[in-house]
Amino acid sequence: MLPSLPIPFSFSQSSLQDYTDCARRFELRYIERLAWPAIETEPTLENERRQQAGQAFHRMAQQAIIGLPLEKLEKLATSPELGRWWQNFCEAYPVLGYGKKLFPEISLSAPLGAHRLTAKYDLIAISDEKATIYDWKTSHKRTRTEILSARWQTRVYRYLLVEAGKHLNGGSPFRPENIEMIYWFADFPNESAKFTYNEAQHRLDGELLLKIISEISQSSQFQPIAERETDKKCAFCAYRSYCARGIRAGDWQESENEPDPIPEIVFGNILEIEL
Ligand code: SF4
Questions:
Q1: What are 181's strand-pairing partners?
Q2: pLDDT for 187-226, tens place per residue?
Q3: With a 6 A CB cut-off, is 243 part of the ligand 1 pocket?
Q4: Is 174 exposed, middle or buried (0-12, 13-18, 19+ CB in 10 A)?
Q5: Which atom of ligand 1 is nearest to 238's Cα?
Q6: What pLDDT is attached to residue 50?
Q7: Residues 3, 32 contacting (CB under 8 angstroms)
Q8: How far is the CA of 235 from the centre of ligand 1 (A)?
């Protein structure tokens, strides 16, 4: 018998994005749990170096936010790239943190249908019942705003803060109009992408999330993407040799995505709010 989706399943922006990009990738990664030892971008060493630098930057940002002195953390910037990101962060930090309650590396979770929706945030900053979600990006290209707007991360993070964030707002759910999300690019500090929110968008996000989760739950066949669509998606997918969609990984310089710097969810760390 083929493995099926566990109930409840913890959906995240990454798993939803995988399903949207390619249903077969979702099946291989989250249902069959197939670990396939292919790298996602070439050259390999450069990819690993970028992953490590991205992780180091996220750690340094978190430590700064919990109060470690910036000048001490600076010693951890051991490459020119990390030094550049750090300098940009230190210049931006007083503005993003001033007068706000800061919640770095916080995870939220809420029920959604028979499943759960989870997210781990780089930072939620709160002031006067208004919340700003920050997501640090260390990609070498500034991801286009239209791509970010369409990504599940933008929907899930804002939606979930309304649904599961009332403990951060004195016990009352945030009004969608009081939430904004900012993607801050370590290499492009003056080109942040900002997304506001509102009640209508929140309702629509809830409907879309229920729809996609119900579709995934009822699926018995997870099709690979059509060949004509494969140019980029398969080239940057770890399963490309398993799917016989090419052996060589895509060149990282062509990708607008960063290697994921943070493990998706630390389950022991999730603050749960039951609806
Ligand atoms: S290689 Fe292509 S078809 Fe196969 S899982 Fe990845 S994106 Fe889907």
A1: 133, 195
A2: 999 999 999 999 999 999 999 999 999 999 999 899 999 8
A3: yes
A4: buried
A5: 6
A6: 82
A7: yes
A8: 8
Structure tokens at 155: 């929907």
Q: Please report the beta strands in the chain, taking only residues with DSSP state E, as ranges in sequence order.
A: 10-11, 41-42, 101-112, 115-127, 130-137, 179-185, 188-195, 250-251, 270-272
What is the number of the ligand 1 atom nearest to the C-alpha of 234?
A: 2
261 has pLDDT over 60:
no
Q: Cα dihedral angle (8, 14, 16, 20), rounded to 10 degrees?
A: -150
How far, in Å, CA of 257 to CA of 139, rounded? 6
User: Is residue 158 in contact with ligand 1, taking CB distance under 6 Å?
Assistant: no
pTM of the model: 0.87
Is there an atom of ligand 1 within 6 Å of 20 CB? no
According to CATH, the topology of domain 10-29+36-218+241-272 is: Lambda Exonuclease; Chain A (3.90.320)
Which residue has the least CA distance to atom 4 on ligand 1? 243
